[in-house]
Structure formats: structure tokens, C-alpha cells
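pls design
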């Protein structure tokens, strides 16, 4: 993870690793969006920083969503913040503030 710490706003190598992991997760979850936010997105990360990722998916809450996301995305210090689409709609303003300046991971951009 130390080599990720020096990456800046572009998301750099950590965003690449996350995009790969999120693509794998999308095969298990009907993903709506995923956004890297917090210190890794803003370039303020330290070696102790979590890797904060908002993950929104369609359907009902899955009791195993957190464990599956951690296992499938498999990025050190990953802290997935998982919400169903309905939960995301109810918390739209909060989630918008939380992810402002973040790096979009899903849906994939071309």
C-alpha cells in the first residue's frame, strides 16, 4: 500500500487496483456506482489511511455485502461503504458531500 500513498487526485495505481476489484464485484452485485473518496482521492493519504469507497447496488440489502466486497475487491485497508440504491436515494445529500472530489470507479468510463 505504501506505493499508493504518493498518488494524487488522478487516483493513480490505487484507482487502477480498485477498478479491477470493482469489476470483479460487479459480477456478484448489481452495482450502480462506486466512488473512491476521502484521503486517497484527495491526495492526503498516509500509510495509516483507510481506502474509502462508496458502493451503491440495486436490490435488497445483502447481509454479506461488506464481507464480500472486502474479499472480492481485495485492496489493503479497504473500507467499503455499502448502500442499496434505495438507501442511497434517502441519503443523497450526505453521500454527495461525502464523495465530492472523489474518483469514479464504476460505472466504467470509456
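designed seq:
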Amino acid at each position: 500500500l505504501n506505493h499508493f500513498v504518493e498518488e494524487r487526485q488522478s487516483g493513480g495505481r490505487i484507482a487502477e487496483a480498485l477498478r479491477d476489484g470493482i469489476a470483479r464485484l460487479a459480477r456478484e452485485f448489481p452495482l450502480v456506482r462506486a466512488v473512491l473518496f476521502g484521503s486517497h482521492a484527495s491526495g492526503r493519504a498516509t500509510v495509516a489511511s483507510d481506502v474509502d469507497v462508496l458502493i451503491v447496488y440495486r436490490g435488497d440489502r445483502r447481509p454479506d455485502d461488506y464481507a464480500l466486497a472486502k474479499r472480492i475487491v481485495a485492496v489493503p485497508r479497504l473500507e467499503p461503504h455499502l448502500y442499496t440504491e434505495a438507501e442511497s436515494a434517502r441519503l443523497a445529500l450526505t453521500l454527495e458531500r461525502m464523495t465530492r472530489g472523489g474518483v469514479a470507479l464504476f460505472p466504467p468510463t470509456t
